[in-house]
Amino acid sequence: MTNQPPAVSRRERLRAQTFQEIEDSSFAIIDADGVHALTIAALARSMAMSAPAVYRYFASRDALIAHLVTVSYQQLTTAMAEAVEGSRRAPRSRVRLLVAAYRDWALSHRRRYGMLFAERAGDVASRPPGQTPLDQAMALLVDLLAAVQNPAPADTTTGDRTLDEQLRQWARARGRPDTTPRAATAAIRIWTRVHGIVSLELTGMFENRTIEAQRLIDLEIDSAVHAMTATAP
Amino acid sequence: MAEQEPTRRERYRRQTVAEIKAAAMTQLCEGGDETVSLNAIARSMAMSTPALYRYFAGRDELLADLAVDVHLALAGALEAAAGREASSVSRVEAVANAYRDWALAQPHAYHLAYETTYGAAREHAADRIVPAAQRCMNVFLGVVAEAGEPVAAALPAALDKQLRRRHGDQHRIPAAVLHFGLVWWSRLHGLISLELGQHLAATGVDTALLYRTEIDAMLDALRHRCGATA
A210 vs B122: CB contact, 8 Å cut-off? Predict the structure, then answer.
């Protein structure tokens, strides 16, 4: 019994627990007042800790926010994946489920969505090319669209050669070289258009609620799918 | 009867408000709304922070005022772009291009007006911000309506009803134009917003090209007078 791995020490357990508390308290501040309200001082106050004690877990506010951004992306992609997991419905219906889960997450985590998409992504340069935090969700969407497009129409290009080439490169970089430019462009269009609707909805542009954002989104999906499967681009 | 000359006190007040807003707008454009600080503004104006609070009840009130100004400035830029073109379709194109150009030139201001989700502006200046935002939308709806009414056949009945209820008869804009305007405005915004956040950079796809192909699709839809989502 000499090589038994040491049990997690009490100290480490406490550390993990505090780490989790920092995460929870940070999200509580963001959800209540937005990311601008999250400072190390405010966080320390809300946890009845000293600021130097918080700095033992995160070297800076930026490091803390980077961690929260990563966790939020994971929550969003998990919510989307769970919405379609094990579903036996047609691929097109699953696209709708996937996108509806995206909007639901945004509406129930308004300020976290704002943190992810309304702020400038700071560390783009440090990310390997072709990798986005939403890659996993985009991969789900692209795969579903490929299933919708099956059998592929004779012409799978977008009608713009430069765009086609960039879309093929993107598909290769993501390990899905068979993705047609039209399926790839449909995925990007669905994302940018749905983000547009959700973002305006969150900002309150559809103020009096008589316009159903979900209806607009479903129409956008139909339109992107139609453009992808039509015989002429 | 001529408008009464403002008192010296009132003139001083207006001037101070304008100076505070100019300082805040400078901070906003340099570092975004997170960096707007009443303390720093007060310092730069050699005022005490409590004195500044006599003009703005708080940071949110000040940001709300700035958001109104941003919407009006954007509306002005869109109107100017529309005014430079002769044909109706090229006016739609010019407005769409001016929208992106303006946002890229003033990313923080755009962000404040279109993506601030903490609702400060809406709470503090709802009576001014909605008409200000509507002015931008109206420029767009105006050029779309001129270019020809998209056919309403593509518009689902339920949405048609919602649009009519929303805008009522006050603008007398056909529902098909409203739908077209709303759909394309949100499409262009979605693309610009993700571009500003550099979220599309990782795909390696050129955002200017994505934007151009969206505009081409929009103009095609207008030329063929089809519905917005066709």
Answer: no
A19 & A95 share domain: no
- Whether residue A1 lies inside any domain: the answer is no
CATH architecture of B64-226: Orthogonal Bundle (1.10)
Place of tokens 């086609």: A164
Q: Which of residues 20-49 of B touch A (CB under 8 A)?
A: 32-34
The pLDDT value given to residue B123: 66
Residues of the domain holding A87? 69-229
The class of domain B1-56 in CATH terms is mainly alpha
Angle CA(A184)–CA(A121)–CA(B32) in degrees, nearest 5?
130
**Does A63 fall in a domain?**
no
Number of domains, chain A: 2
Regarding predicted confidence, which is higher, A229 or A207? Answer: A229
- The CA–CA distances, whole Å, from A88 to A79, A92, B28, B225 equal 18, 11, 49, 38
Probe site for chain A from B186, B188, B191, B205 (most A CB atoms < 10 A):
B186
Cβ within 8 Å of residue B52, ≥6 positions away: B20, B38, B41, B42, B45
Separation in Å, CA of A134 to nearest CA in chain B: 9
| C-alpha dihedral, A119 to A124 to A126 to A132, nearest 10° | 100
Contacting residues of B for A129, CB less than 8 Å apart: 202, 204
What's the gap in Å between the CA of A4 and the closest CA on chain B? Answer: 44
Which tens digits make up the pLDDT trace of A80-124?
Answer: 999 999 889 999 999 999 999 999 999 999 989 988 887 654 443
* C-alpha distance from A226 to closest chain B C-alpha (Å): 8
Chain B contact set for A183 (CB, 8 A): none
Q: What is the mean pLDDT of chain B?
A: 84
Q: What percentage of chain B carries pLDDT values higher than 70? A: 82
Question: Domain spans of chain B?
Answer: 1-56, 64-226
Confidence of residue B51 (pLDDT cuts 50, 70, 90): very high
Nearest to A131 among B130, B202, B214 (CB): B202
Q: Are residues A108 and A153 in the same domain?
A: yes
Nearest-neighbour CA in chain A from B223: distance (Å): 17
Cα–Cα distance, A39 to A19 (Å, whole number): 16
Chains A and B form CB pairs within 8 A to the count of: 147
* Distance of alpha carbon A35 from alpha carbon B33, whole angstroms: 11
The pLDDT tens digits of the residues spanning B86-135 come to 899 999 999 999 999 999 999 999 988 887 654 555 566 777 887 888 89
In a domain, A64, yes or no: no
**What ipTM does the predicted assembly reach?**
0.87
Entry field: residues in chain A: 233
Which of A123, A126, A192 to probe the B interface (max B CBs under 10 A)? Answer: A192
pLDDT band at residue A153 under the 50/70/90 scheme: confident
